[in-house]
Structure formats: C-alpha cells, structure tokens
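Supplementary Methods. Inverse-folding protocol.

Structures were first reduced to a discrete structure-token string of length 464. This string, shown here, constituted the complete conditioning input.
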C-alpha cells in the first residue's frame, strides 16, 4: 500500500496515495467513528452545486485564474453528478458544525482537479483545498446552504410520492363506494359506513399533508451563503456576497434567496424545526392509516378480514401459510423513526449557542433521513393500497352480524325498540335482519334501504 504525506497545523499524517481526500478527512475518519453512516448523497451533490457557484463567482471577479477554475469547475460538476460519492467518507455525525464534511468536499474537489492537471494527489501547490476551493467561504454558510438544497430536492420527491398515495386512496374510494361496512370507535362496533368513505378520509388526510409539505420548500429557500463564519461576510468581498446567492439559485434551479439578516440565518435554525414538525405530522397520519389497514386486514378467517393485502413473503418459520401485513408494519416503523428524529432535531436546534449551531450534522442527518424514510414508506404504501382487495362478502357478513346495524334503524324504530332487538339477538342468535322481518317491524325493502350505501353515505338522518 502506497501512502503520501500531508501536513496541517497538527503535524504530518499518512494518506493513501490513491484516494482523493486529504489530511483533514483522514483525521475525521479517525476521530468520528460514531454512526457508521456516510453523508447523504443528496447533500454531497448539493455541496457540489454550492462549490461550483462559489468558484464561478470568484473567477468572474478575478480572484482565481481561468485555467485553475476550469479544472475546479469540472470537479464540482463531477460531484454534483454523483461521480465522487465514494470519496466522501466522513461519518454523518461529527463534531465541528460540519467542518469535516466541508473539508472532505474541498479536498476531493481539489485532488480531482489536480489529477485533471496531470498532477499527483496531495500536490496542493496546483490546487489548494482551502485557498482555492474554499475561497471566500466557511463551513457555516456552505453547509446549511447545501443542506437546504438537498432538503428541497427530497421534499419535491416526497410531494410526488404523496400524490401517488392520494391517488391510490382515491382509486380505492371509487372501487368500494358501494361497500357497506362497520365503522368502529374505540375499537368497538359503532355505526354503518362505506369502505369508500373510509378511503376518502385517508385521501383527504394525505392531501393536507401534501399541501403542508409543498409549503415546506418556502421555509428552506432562504440561505446564508456569503455570510462566511457568523453572517458578517468576514473575508468575503461585498460583490461576491451579492453574486454568489444569485449564482447558486441559477445552478440549483431553485428559487433561493439570500437572507436579509445573514447573522440571524447563520446562528438560528428554527426553520428546520418547522419543516421537521410538518414531516412529523405526515408521519403521524401514515402511522395511523397504516395501522388501520393492518387492523382491517386482520385474520384472515378469525379477524375482521374486511380487506386482504397482497402476500409479500412468508410470515413465520413455525406457522405454515401465515402471511403478515409486512408493508404496513414497515411503514409504521418508518413513521415512528421520523417522529423520534423530530425530537432529536428539535433538541439539536435548541442547543445552538450564540453565533453558531455546532450540531448541524445531527440536524442534517435527522432531517434527510426523515425525508428518505417518508419517501420510501410513501412509495411502498401506495403500492400496498393499490394491490389490496376489498372483501365484499366479509363486509356484508360483519354488517349482518353486528349490533351497529341497529343504529342505522333508529331513525325508523327508535332507540328503545333498537335495544329490545339487540337483547333478542343476544338470546336467540338470530341476525338483526331476521328479527326485524320476523316481527314485521319493517319491510325487507325498508330494511335494505336503511343499510344501503346511499342511505349510509347521506349527510344526517332521514326517515324512510
């Protein structure tokens, strides 16, 4: 194994000759053996955009020569396109407010550019990670800017996945609008409803989530790029500060805007809490509805059994033919993780001190992980709903066997008569239909109308 020697303020260190990172990254690898996870790819690609914007503006203003900028820009584009992901190796959780991530990015871009110049990795006389790649920048303005770009791109993906989920629920609503079923409150039989109405409610809940998440992009658009260390723009020329936020807007294709108060935007991270809270709201709906689906599919013979889920895998190593609701279970676990991530993110944001939040890596890791989980969970849950089957016969059996049917008859027979019928049902083991018809309390036509989808779906009650 061949090594090169690199130096920093702490001394010398061996770095593998064939890698694109340098001494700062090498120290971070040694120092931060924490999560075992590397940086989210969306954040890496967004960081490439940020570095490209900075280099282009520095070239335009004459701070770097065009020959040097050409190879650096080539490296930034390679990073944007995912070609350098394997070299961003620092742990997702790290001390230093993300400095190790920024330096890993700087070193990889520098060494890629050096190789483009036919130089040797580590020859920073050609391209310097700090003096050239990081010129007029700080971790404190590049990292949160890259994070917001990454988050916005994931938010856009999530909105698309939620739309698919809404459409899946709406399709099931249409398919089952004529299926009368038992509505349950507090896990007990309550009144009659339709399966279509159940899925319509799910679609409306997800529609609210979709709108809230769409609005999240606005919270992420304000950036502090150009503010350098604490938002004062220390060491960065005034022209650069104005130009770089416009350039990253063009490169990213996102309507980003420079914060009016860069100091505030550098030290305060409450917008991440706001977005995380909205993601938590969506997670709570996913959890509730996935649990409903799991509950309605229970059985298949000794449970509720109103729906059947597509069989995905064997459910047990000891119980033959057992099939479990694995997709709803996976969705529920994803939602629980998102809810817990919100707590961690909120704590990290509130732990910021004075002019900077040192815990940006945790904020980034939890936010981007939550977006990943919700994207994946939404996609598989939409497919699950598309594939599930409505068990019409079982729904009908449940209606005929349940006391909930009596509530539908109250408008015609009154509460006391309904209770009498229930008592007889318990004693005789007859169905409500049989008792009502045997006693001539109403005609079969009237009974059928009271438990019809049209009657069940109406707003309010009416006599027949």
């Amino acid at each position: 194994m061949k090594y090169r020697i690199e130096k920093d303020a702490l001394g010398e260190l061996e770095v593998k000759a064939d890698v694109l990172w340098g001494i700062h990254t090498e120290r971070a690898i040694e120092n931060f053996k924490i999560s075992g996870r590397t940086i989210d790819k969306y954040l890496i690609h967004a960081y490439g955009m940020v570095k490209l914007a900075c280099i282009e503006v520095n070239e335009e203003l004459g701070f770097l020569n065009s020959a040097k900028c050409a190879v650096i820009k080539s490296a930034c584009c390679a990073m944007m396109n995912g070609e350098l992901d394997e070299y961003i190796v620092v742990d997702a959780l790290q001390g230093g407010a993300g400095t190790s991530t920024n330096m890993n990015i700087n070193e990889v871009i520098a060494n890629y550019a050096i190789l483009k110049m036919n130089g040797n990795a580590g020859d920073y006389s050609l391209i310097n990670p700090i003096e050239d790649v990081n010129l007029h920048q700080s971790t404190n303005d590049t990292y949160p800017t890259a994070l917001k770009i990454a988050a916005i791109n994931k938010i856009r993906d999530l909105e698309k996945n939620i739309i698919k989920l809404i459409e899946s629920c709406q399709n099931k609503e249409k398919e089952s609008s004529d299926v009368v079923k038992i509505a349950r409150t507090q896990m007990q039989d309550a009144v009659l409803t339709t399966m279509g109405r159940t899925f319509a409610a799910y679609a409306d809940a997800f529609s609210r989530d979709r709108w809230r998440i769409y609005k999240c992009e606005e919270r992420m658009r304000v950036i502090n790029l150009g503010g350098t260390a604490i938002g004062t723009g220390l060491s960065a020329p005034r022209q650069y500060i104005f130009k770089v936020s416009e350039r990253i807007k063009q490169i990213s294709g996102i309507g980003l805007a420079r914060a009016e108060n860069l100091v505030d935007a550098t030290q305060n991270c409450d917008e991440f809490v706001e977005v995380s809270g909205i993601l938590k709201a969506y997670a709570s709906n996913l959890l509730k509805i996935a649990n409903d689906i799991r509950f309605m599919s229970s059985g298949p013979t000794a449970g509720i059994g109103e729906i059947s889920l597509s069989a995905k895998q064997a459910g047990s190593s000891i119980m033959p033919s057992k099939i479990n609701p694995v997709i709803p279970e996976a969705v529920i676990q994803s939602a629980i993780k998102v809810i817990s991530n919100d707590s961690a993110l909120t704590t990290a944001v509130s732990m910021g001190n004075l002019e900077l939040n040192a815990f940006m890596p945790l904020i980034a890791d939890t936010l981007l992980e939550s977006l990943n989980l919700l994207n994946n969970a939404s996609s598989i849950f939409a497919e699950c709903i598309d594939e599930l089957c409505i068990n019409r016969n079982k729904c009908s059996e449940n209606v005929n066997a349940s006391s909930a049917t009596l509530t539908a008859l109250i408008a015609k027979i009154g509460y006391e008569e309904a209770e009498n019928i229930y008592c007889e049902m318990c004693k005789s083991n007859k169905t409500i239909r049989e008792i009502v018809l045997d006693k001539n309390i109403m005609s079969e036509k009237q009974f059928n109308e009271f438990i019809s989808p049209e009657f069940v779906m109406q707003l309010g009650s009416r006599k027949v």
